[in-house]
Amino acid sequence: MNMSLGFSCSASLSPQLPSQLLARNSNNGGLEKVKNLITKTGIPSHITSPLESLQKGNWVKLICGASFEDVVDIRNLSLVYTLAGVDCIDCAAESSVINAVHDGIEAARSIIPVRRPWVMISINDSEDLHFRKAEFDPDDCPIDCSRPCENVCPADAISYLGKDGLSKGGVLAERCYGCGRCLPICPYDKIRAITYIRDVAATAKLLKQDGIDAIEIHTSGREADSFRELWNGLEGSIDKLRLVAISLPDLGELTIPAMNSMYATMNVNLHCLNLWQLDGRPMSGDIGRGATREAIKFARDLVSIKDKPRGFLQLAGGTNAHTVEGLKRERLFQTAATSSEKSLDSSHAMISGVAYGGYARKIVGRVLRSLQSEQGYAHLEDYPDHLLKALIESIALVGTVKSYNNNGS
Ligand code: SF4
Ligand code: SF4
């Protein structure tokens, strides 16, 4: 697949200030520290393939967010996590977002020649929490409201006042990823959620372009007809893909029948790898230690079942820095599957890896917000001290799965 597309989202950045140009010119020295950290850490996935990671059980996916469309953040997140050695970057099915991911990957590869992570786009077959946006009209808000909505938003997507500090703001649609935390917090019930379903024909068109390696279908697992309709709509556009992922919630005893039904639909024309994303507690990894429990329980329940359809298993939903320790407690971390289980390869791991979303964005987002407050929208690599801080955070997280030599500290 030709990935040298020369994507750029530079147009979305502010014009370079003199101080930014100075910073750019003095970067070479600063970037040496970044390269040294990477060399010292020793990141094997910089050269091994994402498929190997799936088989060994150390696959890591960065979830930018199915609805998150802030291309500046997405570009910088992709840069940092490519350097940290992720295997896949999952993003919204929008051209501008995909371009931003590629731009970040290429920026990383211009610092150190690492292998490219796979690029995945996410779509849905029916109503799904990941595919919604919050909305309110600030003109309707009582003037004396203490604005709890602003504080609760993990994506800094709500601003009662506009960027000029005078006009009315609201929800920044490109930053809202639908977590829903603002909905119950408004004392005046002013915030509503708008759900949407990604257009299948537009997705099929996107998939025909180069630069997309994988697709993820978010499903409730309860609506076989919607899933079939979506799958059939993609026909002819999925032939070049390396991986199809299905993200589904824990349906208890209905999980395996749902997986079997979806696999039967896909199997007719599935010519690549497939993966089941076990979505524990959606979009909650940044909340705290306990958020990861549901994904681990889901994984534990599923691996004990023998008649699963073929496909790698990967955790998501509530995943954070405590996920691997939980998997280890359950003896699920990089434990080999037995050949009696329907595996893609007799030696692959029971759990292939972990996807990180809200938590991964939060730990790097702190650095991005600090950079933004100092320099406006900027390329992270132009500010090596910030890049170094972000990289230390991302290596610490990715390293829990990849077992790096150190945590970059
Ligand atoms: S709290 Fe969640 S749903 Fe509300 S605006 Fe922020 S990201 Fe969107
Ligand atoms: S909490 Fe509700 S009323 Fe208050 S600023 Fe936010 S949306 Fe408006």
TrEMBL record:
Key word Flavoprotein present in the record?
no
Q: Where is the 4Fe-4S ferredoxin-type domain?
A: 132-163, 167-196
Q: Where are the transmembrane segments?
A: none
Task: Reply yes or no: does the keyword Metal-binding apply.
Answer: yes
Sorted alphabetically, which keywords does the UniProt record give?
A: 4Fe-4S, Iron, Iron-sulfur, Metal-binding
Source superkingdom? Eukaryota
The record's SUPFAM superfamilies line, in alphabetical order, gives: 4Fe-4S ferredoxins (SSF54862)
Query: Which GO terms label this protein's molecular function in UniProt?
Result: 4 iron, 4 sulfur cluster binding; metal ion binding
Q: What is this protein called?
A: 4Fe-4S ferredoxin-type domain-containing protein
